[in-house]
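Predict structure. Input: Phenylalanine--tRNA ligase alpha subunit, 339 residues.
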Amino acid sequence: MIETIKKHIAEVQAFSSTKKEEIENFRIKYLGKKGLLNDFFAEFKNVANDQKKEFGQVINSLKKSAEDKVNELKESLESKEETKGIYGDLSRPGEIIPLGSRHPISIVKNKIIDIFLRIGFNVSEGPEIEDDWHNFTALNLPEYHPARDMQDTFFIQTNPDVLLRTHTSSVQVRYMENNKPPIRTISPGRVYRNEAISARSHCFFHQVEGLYVDKGVSFADLKQTLQYFTTEMFGKSKIRLRPSYFPFTEPSAEVDVYWGLETEADYRITKGTGWLEIGGCGMVDPNVLKNCGIDPEEYSGFAFGVGVDRIAMLLHQIPDIRMFSENDVRFLEQFKSVL
Ligand code: DAH
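Output follows.
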């Protein structure tokens, strides 16, 4: 009897199959309810006392060999099946893909775009390397105009007509030159100024320009649009337009949003006034419309420009504008967004 069992052990160890059915038959043959192992265990009581110990050991070893074999074959079968289908096991729990980080400037820029897309604006872009006409002259800033001092920039030494744009207002000009009213467009982008770098100003930063040109566009439309924007962007609907001057708009205004004075940070951010400046705006100067081939007798329009970096600093409590361009991963990793 013991010899027979030992033969079975050798047989079990030699067994191999890649077929589910064969493995199952093998399992039933040895480990099933009516399987060989149960028969051998039933035999146990008939075995002579002096052989009981050895008999016990061999049937246990047969049992273990059979179990190990079945497990081993099943496992290799499963892992083969997994790689077989394109998707493997569809019921397997998914692997969590962590959300990557996005630059805070992009997050804010995308949010602004999203807000204006909802009211029928489209997105337009222009080159960062501009010519004098699009950045200055067409915008009512002729050569030697003192207002050019407000926006000193970087010129190509050999050709003063080529410069890095100082504002996204240059895209307004390009858009009006190439499109007929009605025009509703926003132009996000990077701009450059010849300025000393500090915690609050940099030689490059980001703006979003807005332009709306159609028949009968009024200052009230401008105010309403800006109010819609501040409500969606900051959850603050109280704004004020302070008279100001820009060569390309008449009248012109600075846009302030009422931030409130609830926390200590509010006092700091608004210098104790509760008001916060977010950009400039105005009615497009008739001269600018004319320069771009649009009849100011027939059409009117409004424009505005907001600073993206300032808004990002405000919303994310970033104390220094230089952090945006330092590429410090510890800083960048903190910003995640689906937008
Ligand atoms: N271009 C101005 C700047 O960079 C911002 C600006 C003010 C844009 C008034 C406009 C506007 O479109 O109407 O400071």
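Residues 137 and 144 are 10 Å apart (CA to CA).
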